[in-house]
């Protein structure tokens, strides 16, 4: 019925599933000064952004485009955290003129540019932070400022009478190992205390999602308990920002597609559908596996490759799936997209 109304292929979102996930993540972090900011780079659908907003979440923006979509969804600029890179002067002015109040920069050059163009009327409301580059934890990354550069960063903000009050930590995209985050907590907090005017810790995102449902999943309850205990132990008022993205959104989304071609190579079924792997989120980063199901019922299943509608040699939406014999017009559902 949905495909008849809207056409194929079609993304379908389960609002109840999304709301349940938001509630579970929200309850997992008991620290009272916690602000959740959905990492909208994982999905900028305005209808979904409005659901996050209804739960009191804000938005984490990687680009000016993310900010624009957030404003269209009704977020107040004060509810949006910008943590991007490589803005030119016009783009930096646009972000500031939109009224975003918390900005984390990945280089001294971007921090300098912000301080140069920041309208004088905004100086009292702004919170500036740095994205942490720490190779021993996050690996070799182009993004972020290393601790030995903090002195220069403090000098840059001090020249215009501003404070450097935040530290942003991003563990790594699609990380399911809870310990990868919890083992870094003490190190990150110790580094944050090198900032004389430290007021907020943005413990970022990168929280993974178990596309293989029988594999390790990120444990929000363990993470929330350990992070709450460590920050509470400081005995000072620190704002905590958490930026779930894929971990919050992936499980509510399904991509429906129709079969347009079927052929057999010996015992293997090769099924062509009317979408492409380009409509999955960066398989090279998150892995190409997604569970695929069909409404067709049958006693026998066959090893099946689900192929996209391009001639790109890696255009597989699924390989070696176990599915019944399919026919042109049948519908498949690719889960967790």
Notes on the protein architecture:
There is one protein chain. This protein is of the alpha/beta class and 337 residues long. The protein has 2 domains: 2-8 and 251-335, Lyase, Ornithine Decarboxylase, Chain A, domain 1, CATH 2.40.37; 31-244, Alanine racemase (TIM Barrel, Alpha-Beta Barrel), CATH 3.20.20. It is 31% helix and 23% strand. The protein is built from 13 helices and 15 strands. The chain has helices spanning 2-6, 15-28, 46-54, 64-72, 89-97, 108-117, 135-138, 150-159, 178-182, 185-192, 220-233, 246-249, 283-286, and strands at residues 10-13, 34-39, 58-61, 80-82, 102-105, 127-131, 164-168, 200-202, 239-242, 253-265, 268-273, 292-294, 302-307, 316-323, 331-335. It has an 8-stranded parallel barrel with strand order 2-3-4-5-6-7-8-9, surrounded by 4 helices. Strands 1, 10, 11, 12, 13, 14 and 15 form a 7-stranded mixed sheet that branches. β3, α4 (64-72) and β4 form a beta-alpha-beta unit. α2 packs parallel to α11 (220-233). The model has no long low-confidence stretch (mean pLDDT 93).
